[in-house]
Structure formats: structure tokens, C-alpha cells
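To assess whether ligand presence alters the predicted conformation, the chain was also submitted together with beta-D-galactopyranose. Input:
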Amino acid sequence: MNAIAKSLSLVALSIISIQPVASKQSTPTDHTNGQLWLDTNGEHINAHGGNIIKHGDTYYWYGENRPNRGFTTQVGVSVYSSPNLRDWTNEGVALAVSEEHGSDIERGCIMERPKVVYNPKTKKFVMLFHLELKGRGYEAARVAFAESDTPTGPFRFIRSTRVNAGIWPFDMDKKAQKVAQSTNPSAWKHWWTAPWRAEVEKGMYLWRDFKDGQMSRDMTVFIDDDGKAYHITSSQENLTLLVSELTDDFLDFTGKYNTIAPGGQNEAPCIFKRNGTYWLICSGCTGWAPNEARMFTSQSIWGPWKQLHSPFVGEATGYRNMPANKTFGAQGTYILYNVSLPDNTSTLPYPIFMADIWNPRHLSQSLHLWLPIEFSEDGTPIIRWTDKW
Ligand code: GAL
């Protein structure tokens, strides 16, 4: 066995034997949190705000290909492949920006938080992402769809849209709809006051955007045990999360949706399900600067969602000592779980919280942070810093 094959099999073995957090010596990634993560060409992995899927024997990591300077999208969505979650090969651009003037994805647009899922019914790989149109800052606030026959693409851009135009959240009764219709966003010159917040909770921005569709910025896609897919997004000026059911082909919305934490200002939604309970971990809204994570739990994807304390504890020892109340300097992007290990006989023994440590001056150099999620006796998630595991 050559040295590489040997070290790979050791990695596989160590993954299988790993206990949540206990075994800090073993590592599926062999990358150190808080440092650059190199691909097989020796370059930092330029895939941010994305996700990982496994297809066949291969893991695919999708993410924003970020420029070294500036923040608009010049290339598109990157894809990397790996046999073991540790050695990542750059497979190039899964979805490229368009050179066509006026295209929704014209070079200089902003593509963020791409999430790729495999649809077993259509046998297609479907990508949803947050899209901002070129030259319009963050005001378009759209979700976009793309599709491919193969995991590495090229993905075909389908369309971008606001969400749920002309539709009320499914559990909003007639009385609550009337209350929302009585609100008036232009009457509020000063945000963040208690009376303004009360109006937001009544659905002031939901009503403002009712006709043309709800805003959609930071987002994720969640596939439930029954195969149904949901889009979870930061809407209403990033004040309220929406969870919307996707059609069977994952390329549209069914029209059934609900709100989560109205007025709570949550971004970067990351979700997983364990023993029938849904866990949602989000960030606050401070742009590239880190803030304290928030955690919600529910017995149903439709809620009610209960807010708990942040799952982060301790500090990022060795990495600028960033505290738990700053999410160790990072912002979540995805929770990888229920995925089989390289040996294909067992699954990852615990969820991995994947996050970005943003570097706004050189976004392409933003760091990756992967931390195992532990559970307290009552099943509540806990996330501690580890350099390497
Ligand atoms: C963050 C968001 C990122 C990006 C950034 C731009 O809050 O999570 O995806 O949109 O703001 O400032």
C-alpha cells in the first residue's frame, strides 16, 4: 500500500471509530480550522456559503467562487470532488456567470449560498442559490434555480424569482391577513423601535411584497425523510425567515409556506433533523462580521419553532481566541449529516456544522470551519471549537 492509500484508509478507519468530540485526534478532513484549506492543486478551496452532497462514492462540495478583490461574482459556483471528505479536487465551475448583457446571471451579479440537491425522481442535480442582479446591490433579493445531469455540471440556469407572490403563509387566518393589510411600511421613518417591531411581526413587509413576491436572500434547501424538499430563506428585509415547500422536481414552489421567527433578523439558515426533531441554526445580520448564532427547534418543519440559546460554547482556542458568542468568528452555511462514510457501510456518526470565516477584504481567502455537533443528554446540540478532528 502506498503512503497516500495508507493514510486514506487510516482516515476512513478513524472516521468510523470517531465518537462525537471525544476523539479530537482523528480527522475526516485533515484540515486545520482557522487556516487555509488547500485542494489537490495546493490552492485554497474557493467554495463559500455552499454545501456538500455524496453521489456514488464521491463527495461534491459546491460554493461561491469569490474574487480576491470586490464581492460581485466574476466566475460562478465552484465544485470540488473528494473520495474521503479530506482531499478535494477542483472540478471547475458548476454554474458559470453569463457573458450576455442583461442576463439574470450576467458577470457582476451576486451569486450566494448555492445548495445542490439530487432529485431521485428526475435524476437531475438541482441548484438553488441567492441571486442579486448586476448593478442593483442587494435589492433584487431573488432565489434562482439551475439544473444538471451530472454532479459537476455544467448546470443550466433556469430562472430567478421572488417567492410566494400573491400567497399568504398557510397558517395565517383571515383575521391575521386583515391585520397585515392594515400595516403601512412607508409610515415608519425609524426602524428598530418597539412599535415598528410590532408592525413587522404583524406582517408589514410580507404585505408590502405580497403582490410581487417575497424577498429571498441567505438560504438553504432541506430534504425531509419523505423526500420532500423545502427552501428556507431570509426574507422581509432579512427580518423573517420563510420555509416554502418545493415541487416534486425541486424546480418551483408549491405555494405552501410559513414564517419562522417574524422580526427575529435571522440569516445563514442551517438545518438538520435528528430523532424526529428539527434543529435550525442561524446567524444574526451583521454582514461579513461575526455575531452570536441562534438556535430554533420544532417537531414539524411548519413549526411552531421555539428559540433556544446558541449551541456554541467555549472559545476558539488557537484561532484568535474568538468566543462562542461570535460563533468563533464564523457564519454557518450548511449542516452535513446522514451521509455515508467513504466505506459506504456506515454514516457520519454526528452532524458537521460547516461555516465560513469571512475575509471581506479578500473574500476568496475566507476560511472554512467544520465542527462536529455534540448533543447534551436531552438531545440539545452543542458546538465546541476544535482545531482539527
Ligand atoms: C451576510 C450574508 C452573506 C452575504 C453578506 C454580504 O450577512 O450571510 O451571505 O450576503 O452578508 O454582506
